[in-house]
Amino acid sequence: MKRIILKLLFIGFSLTTLLSINAHAQTQDGYTNLIDGVSVDGWNIIGNANWVIGKGIVEGNKSSGFLVSSKSYRNFIIRAEFWAESNTNSGIFIRCQDPNKVTAGNAYEVNIWDTRPGQEYSTGAIVDIAKVNPIHKAGGRWNTMEIVANGPQLQVSMNGVPTVADARDSKFSEGPIALQSAGGIIKFRKLQIKPI
User: Fold this and answer.
1) Which tens digits make up the pLDDT trace of 40-97?
2) Buried-state track 91-126, b at ≥16 Cβ within 10 A, e below 16
């Protein structure tokens, strides 16, 4: 009996290790998986948000805080799959300048917030940099988002439709990525990055 329990523990440990390694493995098309849905390996938690990890999903369900990548990135393409409630306040922050205090003033905030009071910077916009037009809604379903940061050029598309076609800003050239939980439920089941 003791031998069986030890074997099961070893198998569980091996599977967890393998899944964590796969989180940072490169895909055939050159993307690296940044989340694995079983751990926060490679991420630092700041703030008071409640992050639930499991079943291939990273979920934030309490405000206010961030998961901040331990690595810094310069020029890249991000592919993300996320689910949000209609009132969720979240976002993907790129090129963060202070990994301990992430704001829209010291990073580029690609917004996920359908009910933002200023709708021009709602879901799919880059807050205070590039307005979204037409307005896109993400609430209540799974969505895809692609973010391109190449030098001063910034682009965003959601569900295959451009929301920011070609913004230019050179304030921030490099920094970590941060996932925000600022109200409502946000779930990420894919977050991949590819250097340019």
Assistant:
1) 999 999 999 999 999 999 999 988 999 999 999 999 999 999 999 999 999 999 999 9
2) bbbbbbbebeebebebbbbbbbbbbbeeeebbbbbb
Q: How many domains does the chain have?
A: 1
pTM of the model: 0.86
CATH number of domain containing 188: 2.60.120.560
Task: Give the max Cα distance, the chain.
Answer: 64
DSSP code, position 6 = H
Tell me which residue of 161, 192, 188 sits closest to 84, measured CA to CA. 188
Based on its alpha-carbon atoms, the radius of gyration of the chain, rounded to whole angstroms, reads 17
Identify each DSSP E strand in 34-152 by its residue range: 43-47, 51-54, 57-60, 65-69, 76-84, 90-94, 108-112, 141-150
Range of the domain at 162: 2-195
